[in-house]
Structure formats: C-alpha cells, structure tokens
C-alpha cells in the first residue's frame, strides 16, 4: 500500500551497515536508565541504558498509549541477534533518535524468545506488507495494538535510497497527524486479510491425506533442493535443518528396499558427515554454530543455539543407529559435552544461546564475529611446537594440525565470506583430510594421528578459555529445555550411558520444579539465572505457549522410554490434558500457538512450518499418537487425525514445509508397534532386551516395561498388559501391533530379528 511502500524492508539492504561493531563493556556509570533495568530477559537488559523511554510488553504501556492517544513503536529481537546489536548501538543509543521516539511514541521492547506469540503476529504482518522479514523487527501500532506499518532493520540516518529511522519516524508522525484514518483502515484491512489467509482447519469428517503419497512428495521436494557435493539443502547460506534429516531417516525406514529409500539415507548420512567435518562444527570446544555462510559448511555464523544442539544430537545418534558408524555417535556425545559444560545451569536447566560476537583476545573495544573461535597460523605454531617422533621430515605437532584442519598462513577464510574483514588472517578449522590420509602423509599410524590431534585440540581449548567469552543468553525456556531433555534421553538410551540419563532426569526435575506451576497447573515459559547464580522468576511469570507444552511432553515421553520411570509418563498425560484445555481448536482441529483468551494477541495462528524448530502442531500430532498407545485414550488418536486433516492442504502441496508433521502422518499410517518388556527394571536380563531395542532406529514404536505390578499406571490404563508375563522366570519381550502380539521372546538377538522382521536382518549396509 502507499503508506508502507516507502519503507519496504528486505535483507538485501541490511548489508549497508554491517561494518559497525558492538562497543566493549563500558566502565563509566550509565547516563540513562529506563524501566527495562527491572526485567530479567538478557535482550531487554541490553537496552536498559538507552536514552529511550522503553516499556516491556504489557498493560502499563498499552494504557499509556490509550490515555495519551499515541502510536506504539514495537521493537522485537533477541539477545544473540547480530543486527539487533547494530540497531541498538546506531539508533537506540542515539540521543536525538531516543528523544524523537520517547516524545512521540510509546516504545515497547520485546524479546521474541520470551513472547513468540506476539512476535509471530507482527512478523506475519511485516512479511505480508514488505515481502521480507527478520530481526530486529520494527512495527508501528495503534493504541489498540493493530499494526499499520512495519519493517526490519533501519539505519539511523538516510543511506542512499534507503530511509533512515529518523526519517521514517518523522514521516509516521506526519501521517499519524494528517492521515490517521487511512493508516488505521489500511492496517485493519491487512489484519482481516491475514485472519482469513492464516486460518488452518479441517472440515467435519475430513480425513488426513494418504501418508505414502505425502511422504513420496516430501522426499522428491527435498531431493530436488539437495546439494550433492557437500550435502544439505540449497547452496548458501546453509542451515543444518535437522527436521529434514529426521524425515529422511524415517522415510528410509519404510522404504529400505527401494532406490528412493537408499537415496534418502545417503543424503542424510552425507550431510551429517560433511557438517561434522566442517567449520560449522566447533572442533575445539564442541557443539554446532547456527549456519554456514558458504555451501561447504566452512565459515559459520558463529552463534550457538540450544535448539540446534538438541535436534542435532538426536539426528546424529539416530544416524549412528541406522549406519552403525561410530563417527555419528561420537558427534552426538560431543554436542552434549558442549551443552553440559557451557549451556547448563547447576539447577539442571539449560541456557538459550551463546552470541557470535566477542572482544578479540588481542584487546580493543570492538567485538568481532567469531573472535572467540578462530586462530592464526602463527598462534597454532606457537602452541604446538612438539616434535613428532618417527614422522616424515621430523614434523612438529603444528604441521600435522595445520595440514589436517586446513590452516593457512594468510588465513583460510574466503574474502566473500568476510565482507567486513573481521576474519582477515584468521582460520576457521575444517577437516581437510581423513585421518588415514594425514597418517600416510606424515608416515605415522592412524592411532598416533588420532592421539596427536586430540592432544592438540585440548591444548587449543585451554587457550580459548582465557579469551573473552561471547555473551551468554542465560534465560531458560520450557520449550527448548524440552527439546534438550529429548536429546539427553535419546543419546543416553542408545549408548546405554548412565551419566547422560542422569542428566536427562535432572532436566526433567528442573522443568517440574522451576517451569511448572502446580497450583494453576500451567507450564511457565521461562525462568532466569540471577546475579548469584540462583534461578529467578519474573512476576507475573509468562504462561507457557503451545510449543512449551508440546516439546516438554515429547521430552517426557522420551525420558520415560529411556528410564522407564512411570512418573514421567503420568506427568506427560497430565500436561496433554492441560494442552487440550488451553490451546485446542475444537471446531477446526489442531492447536493454536497461544491461549485464544489472550486478547492482546490479535491473530490466532497455528504454526504451519517446521523450520529451525519443529512446529508445535507437528510434535503434538506425534505426542497424541504415542499417548493414545500408553493410556488407551482413543480420543487422542482421533485428535491427532483431526490435526493432520486440518493441515492436509499444506501437507499435500508443500510437505517440504512440514517434514516433522509428515513423520507423524507416517507413524499413524504404519501404526505404532508396542514393545512390552516384562521384567525387573534393573535386572541384567531386562537390560539386555532393552539394549537390543535401543540399538535399532524404530520410528514407529512405543516401549513399555511391566514389572508384575497389576496396580501400575500402565496396567490400569491398558488392562491387556496384565496377561503378559515372564517366561521361565526370565525377562520376556512381546511385540504387539494393535495388541495382537508376537510369541514371547527372551533372547536379545531374537528380539532384534523380530523388530526388523519384514525388512532386513541388518539395519543398513
């Protein structure tokens, strides 16, 4: 529309000011302090000393806008967002811009990770009106919260043909004075169109689409966007997209004998292998960076997000199950080592993220992207001077390390990947040769190379500890903690690692203690690390959203299958009943992202994309199916089918947008196997049967343990289980489909064969 055309905003224009960097920590007392100083969100606290009269999202700001009849300026971002730092420094620390904002607008700062519901509404508006989206997001609203103009990043002053924030604010003030009815009706019209355009619902009696057809189309769409040389999807920037990889492994599971099935597996394993070798994987301090700026997974955007670590750990451990390759299990453990060390709170919770930018070890006030993670060749030579006995040409440890990890004297970062010269002369480690080739090159054994490289990495990790660390976003979100709970449960179960399982239980207890209001029976969205390292809450706390419930329920189901402690199953059932009460769309099927009774959230959205995180509706479709098998509640099976029917248009046309939901659709089509183990929980014979189950990737199964107690949670819910008993006094397994069961099995190898029956004797070549 005419009103919005002059601030159309897209990522292309964002490159203009990327050469400006964060200031270092200031020792002088703050000239300004606003009410964000009372908040706990690290993102809001980053703006607590701006010369802007910021309000957090809430009643106080809404009432001020109404009483003074002023438009609202809503600025949305998150604490590890590079462009949010840039806009904060350039515009929100600018006295002149701060005064214009404070005098003429009610200014609201919002952390999108605390309030994803509000973020989604206004991002939907910005994408619809400007054709682009991203953070920081800048939206102008009427006092009753209706958006009328929006964009993303604005430079402070005009830059070429791009208007600066000062100009934009001046024009909006003029329009608000002289053309307000047109602004408001224009915003209203767009909002109404969005309400219609974003509606997702099923007609009465509609069935979900046919799973094999949808899965084939999803596979074809992914194969079409697959990049063969380095794996991954599309060229650059390249994101890990674990939802795609998990779909492909599920697809392989039901299509093992076809060329498509083998192609799906090959695509997945190649992608995971290339990512593990690439610079997106932190070879010195573990974990994965957000994405790669090039197609070879070499130079990353360096921030590390909790949700990436969680989903990638599951993808890698699954790849180890299907391939039997140790590399994948090692990477999964390596991710959890990073999370346990750097993203874990002593209470058992998990922090959200680490920033990309930090102050270089050489000093100086300016933060630089990747400074914490990169190395010069001379640093490496200085740190690794040891002569390697018996190597060709009496090499030193540095020679072997430099060869293996592609380190160059002039730095190994292509200038195209470094438009602002921050990585000049620096090296991002990337594995350039197999251990075998490196061993051959230096005339030493493979074992010796492994040992030397591990020692070199450990030495570099020690040096890194003395560098200034990137900013840590220490808020703890229920949804991401739920994802991480799943990761520890999965990896712990597959590896039979008691420490990882203990950490998973600790995480489950943390969520119950700090992110669950037992009186009101609601999940809380977030809690925070206090100044004395204690867990803090804000008042009133933020109530949980759909993804908090869905991801925590999924985590609890995974925790039950990993530990077979029934309390987690019981709590999952309680949470699902609560989720249904709070978010279910009785009319159209599926779940709303946020509580429909919150009138400050103008659009009732159902997330229809599995992106960086899976959509909560996709995860809920699986949760409902699994819970129906654990509890015998048939209505949950029906709710799951109704949810899938509501999304059938999207599933049929663009299944690539919902790979996680396609997995749920497949699970429903192929029906879940119930694997029932009768035995004493900690007995060795029970453990052997469980190890056989956990060694296989079985996407369509529920696992349960019966220990002879007829009053147990499971026996009460599923009376048919009472007839299953141990044979000859030893642990016994039954494999059932719709409670038609196999003959009892007591031998772990026989159980493995039974679970693979109808496919092959081995998981994958």
Structural descriptors:
Glutaredoxin; globular; 4-stranded mixed beta sheet; 5-stranded mixed beta sheet; Spermatosis associated 20; Ssp411; Thioredoxin-like_sf; 765 residues; 6-hairpin_glycosidase_sf; 29 helices; alpha+beta
Number of helices: 29
Structural class: alpha+beta
Poorly predicted regions: 1-27, 758-765
Calculate the terminal CA-CA distance, rounded to whole Å. 58 Å
Protein described:
There is one protein chain. By secondary structure, the chain is an alpha+beta fold. Among the domains are: 36-198, Glutaredoxin (3-Layer(aba) Sandwich); 211-472, no CATH class; 671-764, Glutaredoxin. Helix content is 47%, strand content 9%. The strands form seven sheets. A five-stranded mixed sheet has the order 1-3-2-4-5, with helices on both faces. It has a four-stranded mixed sheet with strand order 19-18-20-21, with helices on both faces. Helix 11 (242-254) runs parallel beside helix 26, helix 13 (306-323) runs antiparallel to helix 14 and helix 17 crosses helix 18 (446-465). 50% of the residues are buried. It comes from Sparus aurata. One of its GO terms (biological process) is carbohydrate metabolic process. This is Spermatosis associated 20. Residues 33-195 form the Spermatogenesis-associated protein 20-like TRX domain. Pfam families: Thioredox_DsbH.
């Amino acid at each position: 529309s005419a009103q919005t055309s002059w601030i159309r905003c897209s990522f292309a224009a964002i490159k203009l000011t990327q050469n400006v960097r964060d200031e270092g920590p200031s020792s002088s007392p703050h000239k300004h302090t606003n009410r964000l100083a009372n908040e706990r969100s690290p993102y809001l606290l980053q703006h607590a000393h701006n010369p802007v009269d910021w309000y957090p999202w809430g009643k106080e700001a809404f009432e001020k806008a109404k009483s003074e009849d002023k438009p609202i300026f809503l600025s949305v971002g998150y604490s590890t967002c590079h462009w949010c730092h840039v806009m904060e420094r350039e515009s929100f620390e600018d006295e002149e811009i701060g005064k214009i904002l404070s005098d003429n607008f009610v200014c609201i700062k919002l952390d999108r990770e605390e309030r994803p519901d509000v973020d989604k509404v206004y991002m939907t508006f910005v994408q619809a009106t400007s054709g682009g989206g991203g953070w920081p997001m800048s939206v102008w609203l009427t006092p009753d919260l209706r958006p009328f103009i929006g964009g993303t990043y604005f430079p402070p002053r005009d830059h070429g043909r791009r208007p600066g924030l000062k100009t934009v604010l001046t024009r909006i003030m003029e329009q608000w004075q002289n053309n307000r009815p047109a602004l408001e009706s224009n915003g209203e019209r767009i909002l109404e169109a969005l309400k219609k355009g974003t509606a997702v619902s099923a007609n009465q009696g509609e069935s979900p689409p046919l799973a094999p057809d949808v899965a084939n189309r999803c596979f074809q769409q992914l194969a079409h966007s697959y990049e063969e040389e380095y794996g991954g999807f599309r060229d650059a920037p390249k994101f890990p997209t674990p939802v795609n990889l998990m779909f492909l492994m599920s697809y392989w599971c039901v299509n093992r004998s076809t060329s498509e099935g083998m192609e799906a597996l090959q695509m997945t394993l190649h992608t995971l292998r290339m990512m593990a070798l690439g610079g997106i994987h932190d070879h010195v301090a573990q974990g994965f960076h957000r994405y790669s700026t090039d197609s070879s997974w070499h130079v990353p955007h360096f921030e590390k997000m909790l949700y990436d670590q969680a989903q990638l750990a599951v993808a890698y451990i699954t790849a180890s199950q299907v391939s039997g390759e140790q590399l994948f299990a090692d990477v999964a453990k390596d991710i959890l080592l990073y999370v346990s060390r750097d993203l874990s709170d002593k209470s058992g919770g998990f922090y959200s993220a680490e920033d990309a930018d930090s102050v270089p070890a050489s000093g100086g006030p300016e933060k630089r992207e990747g400074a914490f993670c990169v190395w010069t060749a001379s640093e490496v030579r200085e740190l690794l001077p040891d002569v390697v006995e018996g190597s060709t040409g009496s090499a030193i440890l540095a020679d072997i390390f430099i060869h293996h990890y592609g380190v160059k004297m002039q730095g190994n970062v292509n200038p195209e990947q470094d438009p602002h010269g921050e990585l000049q002369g620096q090296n991002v480690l990337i594995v350039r040769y197999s251990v075998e080739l490196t061993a051959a090159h230096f005339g030493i054994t493979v074992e010796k190379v492994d040992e030397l490289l591990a020692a070199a990495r450990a030495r570099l990790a020690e040096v890194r500890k003395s560098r200034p660390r990137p900013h840590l976003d220490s808020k703890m979100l229920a949804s991401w903690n739920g994802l991480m709970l799943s990761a520890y449960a999965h990896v712990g179960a597959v590896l039979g690692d008691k420490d990882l399982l203990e950490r998973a239980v600790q995480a489950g207890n943390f969520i119950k203690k700090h992110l669950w209001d037992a009186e009101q029976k609601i999940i809380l969205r977030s809690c925070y690390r206090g100044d004395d390292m204690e867990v803090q809450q804000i008042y009133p706390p933020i109530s949980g959203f759909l993804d908090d419930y869905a991801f925590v329920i999924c985590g609890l189901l995974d925790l039950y299958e990993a530990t077979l402690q029934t309390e987690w199953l019981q709590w999952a059932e309680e949470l699902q009943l609560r989720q249904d009460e709070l978010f279910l769309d009785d009319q159209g099927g599926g779940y709303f992202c946020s509580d429909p009774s919150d009138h400050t959230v103008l659009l009732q959205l159902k997330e229809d994309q599995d992106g960086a995180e899976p959509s909560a509706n996709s995860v809920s479709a699986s949760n409902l199916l699994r819970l129906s098998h654990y509890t015998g509640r048939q209505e949950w099976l029906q709710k799951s089918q109704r949810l899938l029917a509501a999304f059938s248009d999207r599933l049929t046309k663009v299944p690539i947008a919902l790979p996680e939901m396609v997995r749920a659709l497949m699970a429903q089509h192929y029906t879940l196997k119930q694997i029932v183990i009768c035995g004493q929980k900690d007995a060795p014979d029970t453990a052997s049967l469980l190890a056989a189950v956990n060694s296989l990737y079985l996407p369509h199964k529920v696992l349960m343990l019966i220990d002879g107690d007829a009053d147990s949670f499971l026996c009460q819910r599923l009376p048919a289980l009472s007839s299953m008993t141990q044979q000859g006094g030893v642990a016994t397994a039954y494999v059932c489909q719709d409670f038609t069961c196999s003959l009892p099995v007591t031998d772990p190898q026989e159980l493995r064969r039974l679970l693979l029956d109808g496919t092959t004797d081995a998981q994958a070549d």
